[in-house]
Specification:
The longest helix is centred in the N-terminal third of the chain and has 22 residues. This protein is α/β, with parallel strands linked by helices. Strand 1, helix 1 and strand 2 form a beta-alpha-beta unit. The protein is built from 11 helices and 12 strands. It has 2 domains: about 190 residues, NAD(P)-binding Rossmann-like Domain (Rossmann fold), CATH 3.40.50; about 100 residues, UDP-galactose 4-epimerase, domain 1 (Alpha-Beta Complex), CATH 3.90.25. The structure holds serine. Serine binds next to loops.
Length: about 325
């Protein structure tokens, strides 16, 4: 039986992935680690702690006989710019701890990379798997470093390191944070609360995006794929849809015709401008049969319903 440790368990991805992993492996076999405590409603095994704490990680792995780690704890792009030292320590130091444990205890590791590995020298459209990596953010630098480290541990120590370059992920189980792509979630809080939103990106900023259910499903598909199907040991290009704020607003107005949008681009525009518009993920599609199931229209309906429910619960 697999025993799974999920770090960053309260984050945007973690809070949704945990539920699916619990369904698959049983609540007692999924250990949720986060720097903050789980809410009292959480059902399952949870530990509070920091991924930079090697002793803590080792204790958890030994105590629960962990066989796989989904290592999600990380600072995002705009948050990392506010504290580059902390971004390096958490994003790279945390991963190094996990990889060392994986080497010593023979664990399979999932770790998310990002479209932030790309930069201004990367082609904007249909970026191939092997491209130019000159990120302009410290977040992107930590992601390129993590990819190289993961691949090194695979070649050098045989660590079963698996990774996806996540596009902007949009889900509603956790509060959105300070990622650049997360305007696409914040906009729904604006819609539900006051039917208006001030967007920090320009209307024509096209970015690769994905609905969270697809991201969780893809992550579990990759982790379940037979080892011989995994041809990429840095991180797979991984994509679903690409849209601009203006296109998202157009779709939202099908639900709420009088929704108002104001555009006030800030520093995050520079980050977004350095990222590609569309990604070629044909290797993931070939290797382990990746296919998304949410297009923009379906995603907008799901996000609207999810945020409406969250806001209603907050008001209770
Ligand atoms: N969604 C992330 C961000 O905007 C990119 O990986 O920071």
């Amino acid at each position: 039986m697999e025993r799974i440790l999920v770090t960053g368990a309260l984050g945007l991805v973690g809070s949704e992935l945990i539920i699916e992993l619990q369904k698959k492996y049983g609540k007692e076999n999924v250990i949720a680690l986060d720097i903050s405590p789980q809410p009292p409603t959480f059902e399952g095994v949870s530990v509070v702690g920091n991924v930079c704490d090697w002793e803590l990680l080792k204790t958890i792995v030994d105590r629960y006989q962990v066989s796989q780690i989904y290592h999600l704890a990380s600072l995002l792009s705009a948050g990392s710019e506010k504290n580059p030292d902390r971004a390096w320590n958490v994003n790279v130091g945390g991963l190094k701890n996990v990889l060392d444990l994986a080497r010593d205890k023979n664990l399979r590791v999932f770790w998310p990379s990002s479209i932030a590995v790309f930069g201004n020298t990367t082609p904007k459209k249909d970026v191939p798997q092997h491209s130019s990596f000159e990120p302009v953010t410290i977040y992107g630098v930590t992601k390129v470093t993590g990819e190289m480290l993961g691949q090194y541990y695979y070649h050098r120590y045989g660590v079963d390191f698996r990774s996806l370059r996540f596009p902007g992920l949009n889900g509603t189980k956790a509060k959105p944070g300070d990622g650049t792509t997360e305007y696409a979630i914040h906009i729904f809080y604006g819609l539900v609360r006051e039917k208006r939103y001030t967007c920090f990106l320009k209307p024509d900023t096209r970015l690769p995006m994905m609905y969270m259910d697809d991201a969780v499903r893809g992550t579990m598909m990759l982790m379940d794929a037979p080892v011989e199907n995994i041809s990429v040991r840095t991180s797979y290009n991984f994509s679903a849809v690409s849209f601009t704020p203006a296109e998202l607003v157009q779709e939202i107005r099908k639900i709420s015709p009088d929704f108002e949008i104001i555009y006030q681009p800030d520093k995050r525009q520079l980050i977004a401008d350095s990222w590609p518009e569309t990604i070629d993920d044909s290797i993931a599609r070939n290797d382990w049969h990746w296919k998304e199931s949410y297009d923009l229209e379906k995603m907008v309906v799901a996000l609207y319903e999810g945020v409406k429910e969250r806001v209603a619960n907050e008001q209770k």
